[in-house]
Amino acid sequence: MDENNIALVEEIKNKLFDSSKELGAAIVNSAEFNGYVNARKNFVSNDEAKKILLSYSQMVRKLNESNNGTSSNNIIEELDQKKKQMYENSILKAYFNAEEELVKLFKELNLYISTKLNFDFASFSKSQNSCCS
Asked: Do 59 and 75 touch, CB atoms closer than 8 A?
């Protein structure tokens, strides 16, 4: 590669890095990101919300471990109660909503970039052995 091509490649890389920094700054300054950061801060500092989410997560784990997927109505009813309790908690509700809005923003960004490049990075990055791919 001659010196002109090397200089051109460096210029393009520098523009890409500058644009990436601008995108990062725009994300960090977005309402969605700030809403998520604040909602997470509120969640982390609220013992009741953490207790409710932990209880729900433990119940989900218990359900998944019980009888290889077959579960009693009692466990399912208890899980439904815990889920209801979770969404009645204003801190958790705000946290889940803020997380959903941030994920929505990232999906929109991925769609925009993927469309421009004609390549879907998000689907490419999924593990081939993942349960959820």
From this structure: yes
Residue 43 near residue 49 (C-beta atoms within 8 A): yes
Instruction: Read off the tokens for 35.
Output: 């809403």
Give, to the nearest 10 degrees, the angle between helix 90-117 and helix 31-44.
150
Span 27-69, pLDDT tens digits: 999 999 999 999 999 999 999 999 999 999 998 888 887 765 5
pLDDT, tens digit, 9 for 90 and up, residues 61-93: 888 877 655 567 777 888 899 999 999 999 999
- Model pTM score: 0.77
Q: Taking the C-alpha atoms of 20, 95, 112 and 30 in order, what is their torsion angle to the nearest 10 degrees?
A: -50
Helix locations, the chain, DSSP H = 3-28, 31-44, 47-65, 73-88, 90-117, 121-125
Rg, the chain, Cα only: 22
